[in-house]
Amino acid sequence: MFNFGDSYTKVDFRFDDRKPSPQYPIGNPLLPGGTSSGGLNWVGQFLGNLNTSVTVSYDLAYNGATVDRTIVAPYGPGVQCFIDQADTWIQNLQEGTDYCKWTAQNSLFSFWFGINDIGMLYPDFSDGMNIMKNVTQQYINQVVRLMDAGAKNLVFLTIPPINRTPQVLAHPADSITQELELIHFFNGVLTWLVDWTKTQSGINSTLIDTWPIFSQVLDHPNEYGFTNATCQGGDNAGCPWWDDYHPGVTVQRLVAEALKENFIREHPGAWF
After folding, report:
1. Across-strand partners of 204?
2. Which of 61, 120, 181, 239 could bridge to 10 as Cys pair (CB 3.0-4.6 Å)?
3. Domain of life here (predicted)?
């Protein structure tokens, strides 16, 4: 697996440390890695609990990542945005290495972006739609770069209802409305992108819609053992949220289950 994304996906993998192997499926650090969920995130859940084959992950996701820093600046200059992550993959892995003999058939590329591209605009959404048009175009550009470099099995994850995070719920009502409009636009582009990639020769593409996954938990928190839909502290505290912007382990596990269920349903020959 090659994972691209932000804090919802990151495990703090470093290329200058131990590489992934059957014994160390995310390479470094040890599972669960440096996640933002208080435990295994969806990548770790899939590798550790749901996958029945020997699969490892090169997780290039970075905390706070946006798609393109020149369009939406992340919180700091050292953040690896989607463009940076794609550059890193091309520089280190495109040709294959002694430690990573990947093929188009035995590899899966996942993409989960957009959460910070919208979140970092707060409190000024006045040009939000034009910004999102530029962001999604750059998102498409990076996906095409990776497809041209050999990516054939693709998974795209939509922006979840971040309007229901404790952080965003503290925003003024008009800001939440504007954020929702941008989320739906971004997710609409992803739906189009998945449909387009499916028309390309040799591409297997799947959309994981995280919106209903999050909504099911937040609409019925008691069914998952949670006190309510807004408390923080993660699963051990009986809360769906690890902090004011990140889901805990249960929600991450449901995302991993959706990956396995949806990808295998659409591509029954999948190796996992």
Report:
1. 153
2. 61
3. Eukaryota
- One-letter-per-residue 3-state SS of the chain: CEEEECCCCCCCCCCCCCCCCCCCCCCCCCCCCCCCCCCCCHHHHHHHHHCCCCCCCEECCCCCCCCCCCCCCCCCCCCCCHHHHHHHHHHHCCCCECCECCCCCCCCEEEECCHHHHHCCCCCCCCHHHHHHHHHHHHHHHHHHHHHCCCCEEEEECCCCHHHCHHHHCCCHHHHHHHHHHHHHHHHHHHHHHHHHCCCCCCEEEEECHHHHHHHHHHCHHHHCCCCCCCECCHHHCCCECCCCCECHHHHHHHHHHHHHHHHHHCCCCCC
**Which of 9-23, 54-68, 96-110 shows the lowest mean pLDDT across its residues?**
96-110
Is the pTM for the entire model greater than 0.90? yes
